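Need tokens for this chain, all 161 residues.
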Amino acid sequence: MSIRKIIDWAVQDQKTDMKGKIVGDFHQLQDNAGNWVWACDVEIGGGETTNLRSVPIAANNLDVIYAEQGKGVSMSRIGSAKWTITGLSKVITNTVHTMLVSFKDDIWEITGSVMVGNVIRPITYGELGTLIAGSGYGVLPYGAQAKFDYYGNLIDLMLEN
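Here are the structure tokens for all 161 residues:
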């Protein structure tokens, strides 16, 4: 293990707030005190895409409970280790809009733009029969989720065991 990795972990442990994106359905979770709270899976950014499983939602936060998949959320640390969703966020991690610019003789020109990022969402009924060529319906379960790039191209299927 490198010293750089150890330092990165130490810096991450000191963070008190973070942004993420809702990637799973909402479900109820029993906390350590025996209370039932709402929770969902959240994707956080970084070099690799990482999902936090069953992140609890802070009390009295109905805006978050009714938010749809792909919505940005703000999270804060509870105590020393756990994260909790504290509200909606205007920023979504892993989504970047890059403008390509060329400079010639002190004149700049926008030559294009690129959207980089991904979206995790349920596969639509129409996509179920087309994602795996020749296999038709029944191979992928209804409600299966997949990761798509910003332009809608399939990257990965998110099947649970």
